[in-house]
Design brief:
Number of helices: 12
Distance between the termini: 48 Å
CATH topology of the largest domain: Rossmann fold
Strand content: 15-25%
Radius of gyration: 26 Å
Order of helices and strands: HEEHEHEHEHEHHEEHEHEEHEEEEEHHEE
Number of strands: 18
Low-confidence stretches: 1-14, 18-56
CATH class of the largest domain: Alpha Beta
Bound molecules: calcium ion
Strand order of the largest sheet: 8-9-7-10-12-13-14
Oligomer: single chain
CATH architecture of the largest domain: 3-Layer(aba) Sandwich
Length: about 475
C-alpha cells in the first residue's frame, strides 16, 4: 500500500460540501430597478433643473464640457468663461482626436453655477457645444434569478436589496462598479467543472497555448489541456458529467456570470477559471493534489498568467510534506491557497482545528487562507470547523445556491452547504481584490481580506480574525 493512500484513501477522504439540492423553481420576482447609488457628488437632472428634467441622467455638479467653435476668438472664449465664472480644469485632446484633424479638443470647465444654467449662459458665444459631464454606471444590480428572489444571500450586503448583513457584501462592491476582470485568473482544484454551463462558459479558461491537435504545444507535460487537466483520470476532459457537481458549484460562487438575467451571480461577474481536477468518484490522492497545485503554479510561471489564487474545498488525511511543498511553490509564485476548514469529520459537528489539525487548511504556509462557514443569520454553521489560530475567517457556507450540471447536459442550479461553499466566496474575494488592485502580491491580498473581516460574535475566539468575509470595499 502506498503511503499516500493512508492519507487520502477512500475512507478518510471527504469533500466539505453537499447536502440539499433543490430543483429550479419558476418563481421570479420583478427585477429591482433602482440602485440607491446616488451620492452627494452627483446631482440628479430631475431634481436640479425645472422644466428640463431628464430622469436617470446624473452628472458632475459644477462641471461642464465645452467645445469652442473652430476659429473662435480669444475674446469670445474669455467672455464665455466670465459669464459662468468658469475655470478650465482640463483640456482634453486625445491622439485619436488629433488623427481626425482636431487640434483644440474639449475643455472641462468648473463653474460655481448650476450646470444647466451655465450651459444656457455660454450658448451663442462661439461654441460648438456645451454639455454636462455625465456620470455613467453599469447595470450593477444583479438581475440574476436567485439573486432577485432572495436566495443568493451569500452575495448580499447590508446596504443593498435584498439585504443580509451576513452576506459577503459583494453586492456593495458591484454597486461601486467592481465586478471583477477576465484578466484575473483562479484555479479550481477540485472535481471537474461544467465549463459549458450557461452561467459559467464566459468565465472559463480556454487554453491559448495548447490547441487541440494531439501535441503538447506549450510543453507543460499535458497534451491539449484545453480547459485544464483531469489528474484523476489523466486526460484532458475536465468535465465528465453530473458527478462533477461539487466543482461546478464551487466555480459558480467564484465566478458565475452576473447581470445576465439568469441563474446566479458569482463574487466576480468576470474572471477566468481553470480546472485542475483531481477529485474523482472515490476522492483524490496526495500525488494528484500535488500535480494539480503544481500545474497551476507552472501555468503562471510558464506563461506569465495573472493567476492569483486556487480554491481548495477539500481535505482529509494527515500532514503531507509533498503537498505542503507544492503549496509553498505556489506561494513563491504569489498564488494564494484558499482552503476549507473542514466539516467536523464523520459526526458533522465542527471540530477545533487548533487541537485536531485539518489538512490542507492547517498548513502553516503564509499563502494559505483557511475558511469556516457561517449561516444566513450569522451563526457558525454547525458542521464548520474552527480554530483561533488555524482558521482565518468565516464566510457564507449554509444554503448556498450556485451552478450545477443538470441531466442531459443542461445547466442547472442548487443549494449546497459546507465549508466547501464558504471557501469559494473567499477565493472570489481574492480575485475581486486583484481586479481593483493590479499587481497586489499574495500577501497583500490576504492581508486585505483579513483586515476587512467584520467582527462576528459566533466567530469570536474561533478564528484568527474573529470575523466574517466583507468585500464591500474591494
Ligand atoms: Ca496541443
Ligand atoms: Ca500543454
Ligand atoms: Ca476526464
Ligand atoms: Ca447569472
Amino acid at each position: 500500500m502506498k503511503t499516500a493512500m493512508r492519507f487520502w484513501g477512500v475512507k478518510t477522504f471527504f469533500i466539505f460540501g453537499a447536502v440539499t439540492v433543490f430543483a429550479i423553481t419558476g418563481c421570479q420576482k420583478d427585477l429591482k430597478q433602482t440602485t440607491d447609488q446616488e451620492e452627494d457628488a452627483t446631482v440628479s437632472a430631475a431634481s436640479s433643473v425645472q422644466g428640463e428634467a431628464q430622469p436617470g441622467q446624473d452628472y458632475v455638479p459644477n462641471e461642464i464640457l465645452v467645445k469652442f467653435a473652430k476659429g473662435s476668438s480669444e475674446n469670445a472664449r474669455t467672455n464665455a468663461l466670465t459669464r459662468i465664472q468658469g475655470q478650465v480644469s482640463e483640456k482634453i485632446l486625445t491622439k485619436v482626436m488629433e488623427r481626425f484633424g482636431e487640434n483644440d479638443g474639449i475643455y472641462l470647465i468648473h463653474t460655481p453655477l448650476a450646470v444647466l444654467e451655465a450651459i444656457s449662459k455660454v450658448k451663442g458665444v462661439e461654441i460648438e457645444y456645451a454639455e454636462p459631464n455625465y456620470i455613467y454606471t453599469h447595470d450593477l444590480v444583479s438581475n440574476d434569478t436567485y439573486y432577485t428572489n432572495g436566495s443568493l444571500w451569500g452575495m448580499y450586503g447590508d446596504g443593498t436589496s435584498p439585504a443580509n448583513p451576513y452576506g459577503s457584501q459583494a453586492s456593495e462592491a458591484w454597486a461601486a462598479g467592481h465586478t471583477g476582470l477576465s484578466t484575473v485568473v483562479v484555479g479550481v482544484i477540485d472535481e471537474g467543472a461544467m465549463f459549458s454551463h450557461s452561467d459559467l462558459a464566459a468565465n472559463f479558461w480556454t487554453n491559448p497555448y495548447d490547441a487541440v491537435d494531439g501535441l503538447d504545444n506549450d510543453n507543460n507535460g499535458y497534451v491539449d489541456d484545453i480547459h485544464g487537466w483531469d489528474f484523476d483520470k489523466n486526460d484532458n476532459t475536465t468535465f465528465d458529467g453530473t458527478q462533477d457537481d461539487h466543482g461546478t458549484h464551487v466555480s459558480g460562487t467564484i465566478g458565475a456570470r452576473g447581470g445576465n438575467g439568469t441563474g446566479v451571480a458569482g463574487i466576480n461577474w468576470n474572471v477566468t477559471i481553470i480546472s485542475a481536477k483531481f477529485l474523482g468518484r472515490r476522492g483524490g490522492t496526495t500525488a494528484n493534489a500535488v500535480k494539480a497545485v503544481d500545474y497551476i503554479t507552472d501555468l503562471k510561471n510558464r506563461h506569465g498568467m495573472n493567476i492569483v489564487a486556487t480554491n481548495n474545498s477539500w481535505g482529509g488525511g494527515g500532514a503531507s510534506s509533498s503537498l505542503q511543498q507544492a503549496i509553498e511553490r505556489a506561494n513563491t509564485a504569489n498564488i494564494l491557497f484558499v482552503a476549507a476548514a473542514g466539516n467536523g469529520g464523520n459526526d458533522g459537528v465542527g471540530d477545533n482545528n487548533d487541537a485536531t489539525p485539518s489538512y490542507p487548511s492547517n498548513y502553516p504556509n503564509t499563502n494559505v487562507i483557511a475558511v469556516a462557514a457561517i449561516t444566513s443569520t450569522g451563526a457558525r454553521s454547525s458542521f464548520s470547523n474552527y480554530g483561533a489560530t488555524t482558521v482565518d475567517l468565516g464566510a457564507p457556507g449554509s444554503g448556498i445556491y450556485s451552478t450545477l450540471p443538470g441531466s442531459g447536459g443542461t445547466s442547472s442550479y442548487g443549494s449546497y452547504s459546507g465549508t466547501s461553499m464558504a471557501t469559494p466566496h473567499v477565493t472570489g474575494a481574492c480575485a475581486l481584490y486583484a481586479s481593483t488592485h493590479p499587481g497586489a502580491s499574495a500577501a497583500q491580498i490576504k492581508a486585505a481580506i483579513l483586515a476587512a473581516a467584520v467582527a462576528t460574535p459566533s466567530l469570536a475566539g474561533k478564528c484568527v480574525t474573529g470575523g466574517r468575509l466583507n468585500v464591500s470595499g474591494f
